[in-house]
């Protein structure tokens, strides 16, 4: 049975809130993972339709939540998460291929791998901190890690951990760091980049 109500409480950082049913019944807990479109942050007073289920403690909660005007899951957006993960893995693979095909220093590959692994761990720690009301990692720190080469790990963390994947202002800056980082990597294939790499090899 489908129900209708409004989102009357929402904690964006922790990704959960409460729906007040139109029937006047008690508020129902809802987690962001139960929304059809998890990439669009829920808003207060937004009308939603949902089904009722229970959590591990046998408490009622909303599932299969859709906003007014949306349909139940089944659209092409279901492929967004694996596509973004594939994008991150594909970029790392491309860097590895460049080491062999274009003699890009293998240290560049090591940098991306290490930065991505570290960034993934920082995201995981920040999500844990958000859930337990602990000290959070600054968004500027997350963006810096992405900019210096950790963006593949950040992108995978956003999709796998479902963390920092909904706030539009954060996503805008994040993708800007991705563009700048990729642009910097692309410069390695130019004449100036090749000269810089030769100078770096001579120095080391």
Number of strands: 5
The topology string of helices and strands comes to EEEEEHHHHH
What percent of the residues sit in helical stretches (DSSP H or I)? Answer: 40-55%
**Order of neighbouring strands in the sheet with most strands:** 1-2-3-5-4
Beta-strand percentage range = 15-25%
Taking the sheet with the most strands, its summary is: 5 strands, mixed, barrel
Count of folded domains: 2
Average pLDDT, all residues:
87
How many separate helices? 5
So what's the overall shape? elongated
Tell me the span between the first and last alpha carbons.
68 Å
- What is the alpha-carbon Rg in Å? 21 Å
Oligomerization state: single chain
> Low-confidence runs (pLDDT<50, min 5 residues)?
none
Q: What structural class do helix, strand and pairing data support?
A: alpha+beta
SSE layout and pairing:
Layout: E1 2-11, E2 16-21, E3 28-31, E4 47-54, E5 60-67, H1 80-101, H2 106-132, H3 139-160, H4 168-187, H5 191-203
Parallel strand pairs: 3-5
Antiparallel strand pairs: 1-2, 1-4, 2-3, 4-5
